């Protein structure tokens, strides 16, 4: 019985996901004389791979419940390289903690698919509690540099939400393997 629930829910979610990631983005009617807007965002929380959000085993997740809630995908750094468009997006969980993930497409406005695994960010600051908003620079030295916000608890304040923000910097040559810069 539970396998039927799992199978039907998975099939429905896969159909929604496939429709989303294959959808063509169209120009909207809005134009301000400088740039063209499109009808849909190029990345959203729904673009994250299903196996990130769901335990895909009907034995351990018989009701196909979401296990890792994704609140938002936002504030991507962008890069055009080797004929493809890449976005290093901030992926924010329901707990408001973020991680980075790379999405790529042949088009700058649609068809973005996340790589199978999020960015394995080196631990550049042991006190760091959150990261967000990476910007990319492809340098003539062959490296792609990522500068991002590195947030840690403000220990000088009794306010539990107080934080210190600093710039973190990492580098990569392939958007797969990252190291401190």
Number of helices: 2
Structural class: mainly beta
Helix/strand order: HEEHEEEEEEEE
Integer average pLDDT: 95
Q: Main sheet, how many strands, which sense, barrel? A: 4 strands, antiparallel
Instruction: Indicate the percent of residues in helices.
Output: 10-25%
Contiguous low-pLDDT stretches (5 residues minimum) are none
Question: Order of strands in the sheet with the most strands?
Answer: 3-4-5-6
User: Termini, distance in Å?
Assistant: 53 Å
Proportion of residues in extended strands: 35-45%
| Overall morphology | globular
Radius of gyration from the alpha-carbon trace, in angstroms = 19 Å
Question: What features would you describe in this structure?
Answer:
With 181 residues, the protein is mainly beta. The chain is 14% helix and 41% strand. It is built from two helices and ten strands, in the order αββαββββββββ. The protein has helices at 2-22, 50-53, and strands at residues 27-31, 36-38, 70-81, 84-93, 98-105, 113-114, 128-138, 144-153, 163-172, 178-180. The strands form three sheets. Strands 3-4-5-6 form a four-stranded antiparallel β-sheet, with no helix packed on it. The longest helix is centred in the N-terminal third of the chain and has 21 residues, at 2-22. The radius of gyration is 19 Å and the shape is globular. The mean pLDDT is 95.
């Amino acid at each position: 019985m539970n396998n039927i629930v799992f199978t039907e829910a998975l099939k429905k979610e896969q159909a929604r996901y496939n429709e989303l990631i294959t959808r063509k983005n169209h120009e909207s009617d809005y134009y301000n004389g400088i740039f063209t807007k499109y009808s849909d965002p190029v990345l959203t929380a729904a673009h994250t791979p299903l196996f990130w959000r769901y335990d895909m085993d009907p034995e351990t997740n018989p009701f196909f419940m979401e296990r890792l809630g994704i609140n938002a995908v936002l504030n991507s750094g962008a890069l055009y390289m080797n004929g493809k468009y890449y976005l290093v997006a901030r992926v924010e969980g329901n707990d408001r903690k973020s991680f980075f993930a790379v999405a790529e497409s042949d088009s700058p406005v649609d068809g973005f698919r996340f790589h199978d695994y999020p960015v394995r960010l080196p631990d550049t600051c042991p006190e760091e509690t959150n990261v967000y908003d990476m910007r990319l620079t492809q340098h003539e030295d062959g490296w792609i540099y990522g500068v991002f916000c590195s947030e840690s608890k403000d220990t000088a304040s009794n306010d539990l939400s107080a934080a210190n923000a600093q710039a973190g910097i990492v580098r990569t040559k392939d958007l797969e393997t990252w190291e401190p810069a």
